[in-house]
Amino acid sequence: MQLIEEICMIYDNYSDLDTEVLAASIRNPLHVIEAAQAGAHVETIPPKIIHQLLKHPLTDSGLATFVKDWEKTGQKII
Length: 78
Fold this sequence. Notes:
By secondary structure, the chain is mainly alpha-helical.
């Protein structure tokens, strides 16, 4: 990820160059976040990592709590 950050900094120094930085070989969800924070414009992300980004224990429990609270209101979305 340090290399991605360095490449982004170099291209930022030459703003007249029309280029985008592609982060490849993403190996885990943290790499996705770190590459985006470093300034990568595009990332090649394997499907396994995309699924890991969508499935997180805190997201699951938060969603379950939201659904339970919503059901208590008795409201319906048409």
